[in-house]
Sequence to fold (213 residues):
Amino acid sequence: MRNRILALVKPLALSIAAIAIFTLGQSEARADSVTFSTVGCFGAGCIPVAATGTTGSGTASLVFSSQSVTTVNTSTPSGFTSADLGTFTLSGVGTFSATPFTLQVNQTVPTVGSGVFGATLSGTLIQNGSDVRIVFNDTFLVIGGVSYQLVNLTNGNTLTLDPNATGGITRITADISAAPIPEPATMLLLGTGLTGLAASARKRRKKAKSAQK
Fold:
């Protein structure tokens, strides 16, 4: 019985040992480079575009400007880097009443995919101040192993729009991080070990059948 167990485990053990040795001489592969862009839109069932806007009562106006194609490197001590996902420009006076907003992130590196942040715009803009805000339904999404976590929010999910900022511009910012991905050679070694394990098991079964004849 002991010999059978050793014969079963040996190929896999050898594969694991080879992986460990290989890893010592190689840095961990990471999806360090992340390339993305954004689009957005206002209104229920809207189609996100590069630049769009909405109006409230009076002269209140809000314009969203997308983030053009941007590449960031997440290989930092913190494991993430911060980047803008677009900007809002607020102007005039008046009230916005529960207007849906959609922010779509389009990623091309390390994998192609997209994700959506849904939110609602509301609040009143006056001459010397504002309580205009965008409340996000979710503040975190993952695209192909890359996470986008919205930051510069209050109450956990609220982006307060500041008409007194330079140009009335408020930025949407996210911390972007990428998960490790397996080295191709590591996956090959592991696959070789598993293949060897399966072949060994088949060989033992054949011997057992031959012995029974």
Remarks:
- The first strand starts at residue 33 and ends at 42.
- Residues 33-178 form one domain.
